[in-house]
Amino acid sequence: MSPGTLLLANSAVVGCALVRDAWSPGVRVPDDGGQLTSQRVRRRGVLLGAASLAAAACGRAAARVAPDTAPTLIRGPARVSAPVAPVSGGHHGAANPAGRPVPVPPMTSAPPAQMTGRATVPVLCWHQLRSWVPTDSAYSRSALICPPARFREQLDALAAAGVTTIGPGDYLAHLRTGIPLPPRPVLLSFDDSQVSQITEGLPQLQQRQLTATFFVMTVVLGKPGWMSPRDLRRLRDAGMTVAAHTWDHHRADRYTGADWSVQLDQPRELLERLLRTPVEHFAYPYGAWSTADFPHLRHAGYSTAFQLSDRGVDRAEPLLTLRRLLVSSSWTGPQLLAAVAAARRPPPPAG
Ligand SMILES: [Zn+2]
């Protein structure tokens, strides 16, 4: 999501808005939503007000996040699947003809400059997929809310252009090792966990045999208008990638103290517990990042982190500053393809 914007405009939560620097003591936090307790939430005070207020306003019934009963996480040392050349419709790794996992050596990473030179895969980002309502701002209509007919037109254009969707694991393998990607690779992504991405987005992707990555903020899971843990498993089972987008969408360039754990560690742990699969990809809320984030992202176990395309990549940490392009709902199919073509150029270094 871009800087300075409000998060919520979902039709299911019309009237809700993330009001920063506000605190709503009545909010209920999912019991295992990053393993937060109400006391820990209160200690963080206003820093956690934004999405908490959203949750209070948008989900007073506050469905609890249902934990899995038998959390058996499948985790490898760094990556559990081979960095195979991906194909459309699947990117989750290797198996031999008999269906057994193929052991692979750990990946070695290229120097940062070489990875930066390889960072030419367009990464597209949508938010809500719904019709506009009168209270939607002009900015939200353009950047955050894509009407279903336009979204379908955009996907049709991508499919007709012969793109191949890849996942962040494929992109990571390519950046680290140079392993080839399929022709015309793109990475499609969705932010913020709105349920319209399940009801509208997922079927449209599947109809076109496209895959995508869903960056989830865990505070809203299970609340009306937002994804549920079951939705996350549905995405996983459909060959999509579920990735992290913090607990409550606070800017990652302002974290201090417990924020690192609450926003980076605990959401990943929760998603892995719900999905029983590694979660190693992250997107910065509002695209905002700081170099101070990098050691904490590494410590939390993230291999990639995605910003937006208004900044260059960090010279030393290209994997943690991969760029994404906000898709405008004003773009026709040809306009989207033009933006995709422009995004295939190597990124500049961050200034
Ligand atoms: Zn976001």
Q: How would you sum up the global shape?
A: globular
> What oligomeric state do these chains adopt?
single chain
Q: What is the radius of gyration computed over CA atoms, rounded to a whole number of angstroms? A: 19 Å
Helicity level: 25-40%
Ligands and ions found: zinc ion
In short:
This protein has 351 residues and is of the alpha/beta class. 31% of the residues lie in helices and 9% in strands.
What report would you give on this structure?
The chain has helices spanning 38-44, 49-58, 112-118, 138-144, 148-160, 168-177, 196-207, 229-237, 259-275, 293-300, 333-342, and strands at 123-126, 128-129, 145-146, 164-165, 185-191, 213-216, 241-244, 281-283, 304-306, 325-326. It has 351 residues and is an alpha/beta fold. The chain has one domain (3-14, 83-343): Glycoside hydrolase/deacetylase (TIM Barrel). The strands form three sheets. Strands 1, 4, 5, 6, 7 and 10 form a six-stranded parallel beta sheet that branches. The model is unreliable at 1-105 (pLDDT under 50). The structure holds zinc ion. Zinc ion binds at residues 1, 191-192, 245, 249, 285.
Summary keywords:
351 residues; alpha/beta; TIM Barrel; two-stranded parallel ribbon; 11 helices; 9% strand; disordered N terminus; binds zinc ion
Topology:
Elements: H1 38-44, H2 49-58, H3 112-118, E1 123-126, E2 128-129, H4 138-144, E3 145-146, H5 148-160, E4 164-165, H6 168-177, E5 185-191, H7 196-207, E6 213-216, H8 229-237, E7 241-244, H9 259-275, E8 281-283, H10 293-300, E9 304-306, E10 325-326, H11 333-342
Parallel strand pairs: 1-5, 1-10, 2-3, 4-5, 5-6, 6-7, 8-9
Bound molecules: zinc ion.
Zinc ion (ZN) is lined by residues 1, 191-192, 245, 249, 285.
